[in-house]
Every structure is written in structure tokens, then in C-alpha cells.
Amino acid sequence: MNLPISADPAKAGCGEGLLWDEHRGLVWWVDIAKEALHSYDPATQHAKRVAMPYLISALALDQNGDLLIATKYGLGRVDPENGTIVLLHDPEPDAAGNRLNDMLAGPDGALWIGTMSEGAKGPTGALYRYADGQPKTMMTGCTISNGLASSPDGTRLYFVDSVPGILHVYEDDIWQVLRRFDTSTGKPDGLTVDADGTLWIAICDRGQVIGMTPEGEITTRIDLPCEIVTNCTFGGADLKTLFVTTGTFSMTDQEKAANPAAGGLFTIEMGVAGLPPHRANWPEA
Questions:
Q1: Prediction pTM value
Q2: 205 is an active site residue
Q3: CATH code: domain of residue 184
Q4: Sheet of strand 125-131: strand arrangement
Q5: Residue 130: is its pLDDT beyond 80?
Q6: Which stretch of DSSP H or E encloses residue 201?
């Protein structure tokens, strides 16, 4: 494992939504606070930013390789060249003040989408599983639906609710609490799983990514050169690069000036490979 390297000093307000796209050879990510879609090509080190028409928060690939996008108005499909979004479905059309937050295409092609109240004002969010374009409610009472990932064998789904600091696991049609985070561990945010089954979790208030066993034991801590660490995913030609997003949303101007790397995209070369993302089976138009 090597030290983190700044790949794109984007100065994002809230970097999130990391997604490796093997076909395009890019890692996609979003800036929630500044309403932008970012991409980074590790082969050429080329970074690109495309302005979005409104808030976006997460990404997934569909069966055709197109980009699905979580937005404040529901799920959509985005043209990454010009930022045009075609909305597909809103699981909560009557939940004023809620928006989509995190998203994952599962190994069976189902699309998991979590919601939250804007500003995390209360436990009004939920987690949905879309099969054939129709949502099924899988959990309610969520504050910030975050950190979705599946185990290598596809039998487990991991899910983070960041405000209470709970890491849930869904297995054999049953939800269980895998770990409760507290002031000694910090707040969990986005997560990913490697080919060995280890969970890698962004700790948003500690400047760290931690490694955790499937039993919930913390085994590794990777320090980033900025405090707000929001998400991580594996990518690159051999899937051994850990991409990490960061943010600046709670920093003062003085803190930003003292920490110019904050809000950037980082890479860490790892000794283990990650898993390629699954694709969501979304009904054809």
C-alpha cells in the first residue's frame, strides 16, 4: 500500500458517487455541493468537469453502459458530454424535502437507492431496491443513506446510515447491525469491498479510509491529507487503485487556504484488487 496521491485538485464542495467505468477507462464522481459531474482517466491523467442543471449525488451503470444518476428530483440517465439528464423515476414523489443520495447496482441487476432529508434534518429517508424499474422499500427511518456495497459472492449487502453511525448488513433476507460507530471511530460515509471481502470505508470527519473485516473488526487505517473524506472505490486497469473523494463543505476560508488538497480526488495503490461494478437492468424505453 502506498501513500495517497492527489489526482485531481478539484476543490469540490462534497465529492461523492465514485464509479469505475471499465469500458471508458474512467472513474466518474460527482460534486454534490457544486452540482457537477467529474471524470478522471488514470491512463492519461486527464480530468474533466461538466456542470449539471441541479443537484446530483450518485452514479451507476445500466446494462448498456449508460450512466444512471441520482438527483434531487429522482433517478435519471445522464449524457456525460453535455450534462443533459432524462428523469426516469422518483421513489418518493410526495416526500417534500427528501432527495436521493447513494446508489448501487447489485449483482442480480437490481438497483439500490437510498434517500435522505435535505440537510439531514431527520430520519425521513429510506432504502429502495428496484427490480424491473419498480421500487420495493427495504428500510425506513434513515437519516443519511450512504455507503452501499455488496460482498464478492453477492450474498451480502452493506449499507451505512451516517448520522447514527450504523453499518447494516442484509443477508438471507434479514437486516443486522454489523457495527455501530462512535466518537472513537468517526462517522462512516461511502464504502467499497475488495476481492478478498474486506470493507474499505471513508470516515468523513477523521481524514481516513479504514479497512474492516466482514465481521466488523477494523484492521487498517489510511490517512488522507484532508479531514473530510467522503467515498472510495477500486478502479484502474488491474482494479488495484483505490480512488478517494474528499470535500470542503464545513471548512472556513482559512482552513481551505491552509489545505489546498481538500476537495480533490486521490489515488492509493493497493496490494489487493477491488471488484468491477455490476450493471443495473433498467427497462428499455
A1: 0.97
A2: no
A3: 2.120.10.30
A4: 98-105, 111-117, 125-131, 134-142
A5: yes
A6: strand 199-203
